[in-house]
Amino acid sequence: MEWRILATAAELFRTKGYAQSTTRELAGMIGLKKASLYHYVESKEDLLYEISIQSLRQIDGDVAAAIAASAPADALRDLIKAHICSALGNRDHHAVMLSELRSLSEPRRQQIVKARDAYEARVRGVIVAEQAENRLRSDINPKYLTFALLNLLNWTIFWYQPGGALEPEQLGSLLASIFIEGAGAAGAVT
């Protein structure tokens, strides 16, 4: 599917909502007739699915690369920075994936949930490793630390303002410090 169509659809769905957006409107934004849009895509749901799966693949790939390049003691900090940079770099896609999941048909929703769960498992694996090394509190179930971290990171796409006081990487560093110091094990060196 053409990148320009997906990017425009993601922007439209994020600003207007999936249910309120029409393929006629999308075609007009791209400079196509509605019938011409269907040369590239079969349905509006196809667009939502592609936006969602690409968002998850991108963020998972970026985070996996960051973890692989990190020293074990830096993996969580680098994961957080990579997540923030990826999410804000692909903000429309990520926001749509998070907020419009319910709009997908059940089989497609389940595919996105499966991909999201795999990403969540990657993040949880880093948290478990940090707990094992006594760098994060072990008295908190890693499931809840993972949920807290992902909520902290994912919601930035709704309030972050480009051109503000912090660039995405700076924000990632700040959020890493907030999470790691807040959930750090007593006496752990961060």
Quick summary of this structure?
The chain contains 10 helices and no strands. The chain has one domain: Tetracycline Repressor, domain 2 (Orthogonal Bundle), CATH 1.10.357.
Spell out the key features of this protein.
Tetracycline Repressor, domain 2, 71% helix
- Give the count of structural domains: 1
The CATH H-level superfamily is Tetracycline Repressor, domain 2
CATH classification, class level: Mainly Alpha
What is the N-to-C order of secondary-structure elements (H for helix, E for strand)? Answer: HHHHHHHHHH
* Strand residue content: under 5%
Morphology call: elongated
- Supply the number of helical segments: 10
Structural class: mainly alpha
- Rg calculated over all Cα atoms: 18 Å
Helix content: over 70%
**Can you tell me the residue ranges where pLDDT is under 50 for at least 5 consecutive residues?**
none
Assigned CATH architecture: Orthogonal Bundle
CATH topology label? Tetracycline Repressor, domain 2
Please, what is the average pLDDT? 93
Q: Give the assembly state of these chains.
A: single chain
Number of β-strand runs:
0
Biggest β-sheet, characterized? none
Cα distance, first to last residue?
44 Å
